[in-house]
Amino acid sequence: MHAIASLAGRVLLSAIFISSGINKISGYAGAQSYMESHGLPGALLPLVIAFEIGAGLAVLLGVFSRWAGLLLAGFCLASALVFHLNFADQMQAINFMKNLAMAGGFLLLFANGSGRYALRPD
Which of 83, 122, 119, 115 is nearest to 10 (CA)? Predict the structure, then answer.
């Protein structure tokens, strides 16, 4: 049961980052504009896309997933602090809490590893 739950957790945790990275490619100008509106250089967008897709795939496949999980936990916390601090907007407050919850899931992945069903079990 533990191995199946670990696999399901990795699938669910990785899905948002893989799809988000792909969506940033198709909506590049909008994503770049959104980053710039929050004081970040739009030139960082290719790195963000590569990170989201690469780290998401690492978690999904169970390849260096502990380290990918730790990096994604930091990414979630940084994203919450940069993009979702307007608590007067209920959606931003929800997104802030979502990012904190995802960071928690990634920290659990870092602590416990990818489980049995992984290409490179930790």
Answer: 115
Residue owning tokens 């990795």: 10
Residue 9 DSSP symbol: H
Q: What is the dihedral of CA 11, 94, 78, 122, to 10 degrees?
A: -20
**Cβ–Cβ contacts within 10 Å for residue 43, how many?**
10
User: Does the pTM exceed 0.85?
Assistant: yes
For residues 73 and 68, give the distance between their C-alpha atoms in angstroms, rounded to a whole number.
8
And the tokens for 43?
């030139």
- Distance in angstroms (rounded) separating the CA atoms of residues 32 and 12: 26
Kindly report, residue by residue over 42-72, the tens digit of the pLDDT. 999 999 999 999 999 999 999 999 999 999 9
pLDDT value for 120? 86
Pair 115, 121: CB distance under 8 Å: yes
Q: How far apart are CA 40 and CA 77, in angstroms?
A: 16
* Amino acid sitting at position 93: A
